[in-house]
From TrEMBL:
<comment type="similarity">
    <text>Belongs to the ATPase B chain family.</text>
</comment>
<keyword id="KW-0793">Thylakoid</keyword>
<feature type="transmembrane region" description="Helical">
    <location>
        <begin position="32"/>
        <end position="52"/>
    </location>
</feature>
<dbReference type="GO" id="GO:0045259">
    <property type="term" value="C:proton-transporting ATP synthase complex"/>
</dbReference>
<keyword id="KW-0812">Transmembrane</keyword>
<keyword id="KW-0150">Chloroplast</keyword>
<dbReference type="GO" id="GO:0046933">
    <property type="term" value="F:proton-transporting ATP synthase activity, rotational mechanism"/>
</dbReference>
<keyword id="KW-0813">Transport</keyword>
<keyword id="KW-1133">Transmembrane helix</keyword>
<dbReference type="GO" id="GO:0009535">
    <property type="term" value="C:chloroplast thylakoid membrane"/>
</dbReference>
<comment type="function">
    <text>Component of the F(0) channel, it forms part of the peripheral stalk, linking F(1) to F(0).</text>
</comment>
<dbReference type="Pfam" id="PF00430">
    <property type="entry name" value="ATP-synt_B"/>
</dbReference>
<comment type="function">
    <text>F(1)F(0) ATP synthase produces ATP from ADP in the presence of a proton or sodium gradient. F-type ATPases consist of two structural domains, F(1) containing the extramembraneous catalytic core and F(0) containing the membrane proton channel, linked together by a central stalk and a peripheral stalk. During catalysis, ATP synthesis in the catalytic domain of F(1) is coupled via a rotary mechanism of the central stalk subunits to proton translocation.</text>
</comment>
<keyword id="KW-0138">CF(0)</keyword>
<feature type="coiled-coil region">
    <location>
        <begin position="63"/>
        <end position="120"/>
    </location>
</feature>
<keyword id="KW-0375">Hydrogen ion transport</keyword>
<protein>
    <recommendedName>
        <fullName>ATP synthase subunit b, chloroplastic</fullName>
    </recommendedName>
</protein>
Length: 180
């Protein structure tokens, strides 16, 4: 077995040229491997950090845009809510006015119907009164005609020419007395 300290002592000892092999001494190969890996990472890492910075900027821009859009959406939502409240208030006012107008129309219709019925009742009563008066006048006229015909018939049967002349002369005499 080889001693670990032997590899540090024999640093100047290299295998012969033309031979290829693996150096299994971890302590001797690690600094070389680490320096190569770090060099490669630093060389290629610059591009990766630029990519990461670009990606970070895009993500930040997307977040800012999203925040702006969210703020705009919140503003629009508040405006929509305010408009909805206004519309609901307006609708309630129209509803209340509509109910009031319906009640007013109902009352107007009832009053109009009542007035129409009252006018029809008055017209009916006037028509009945007129017809009664007409019937009474017709009955009076017939009674008067019948009485007149009866009186004329009685007078014609009772009066003769001499009595008739005396009645006329008496009436003319009383007329003269009244005029004097």
């Amino acid at each position: 077995m080889k001693n670990v300290t032997d590899s540090f002592v024999s640093l100047g000892h290299w295998p012969a040229a033309g031979s290829f092999g693996f150096n299994t001494d971890i302590l001797a190969t690690n600094p070389i491997n680490l320096s190569v890996v770090l060099g490669v990472l630093i060389f290629f890492g610059k591009g990766v950090s630029d990519l990461l910075d670009n990606r970070k900027q895009r993500i930040l821009n997307t977040i800012r845009n999203s925040e702006e859009l969210r703020e705009g959406a919140v503003e629009q939502l508040e405006k929509a809510r305010a408009r909805l409240r206004d519309v609901e208030i307006e609708a309630e006012r129209y509803r209340a006015n509509g109910y009031y107008e319906i009640d007013q129309e109902k009352l107007n219709s009832i009053n109009s119907t009542y007035k129409t019925l009252e006018q029809q009742e008055n017209s009916k009563n006037e028509t009945i009164h007129f017809e009664q008066q007409r019937a009474i006048n017709q009955v009076r006229q017939r009674i008067f005609q019948q009485a007149l015909q009866g009186a004329l018939g009685t007078l014609n049967s009772c009066l003769n020419n001499e009595l008739h002349l005396r009645t006329i002369n008496a009436n003319i005499g009383s007329m003269k007395e009244l005029t004097d």
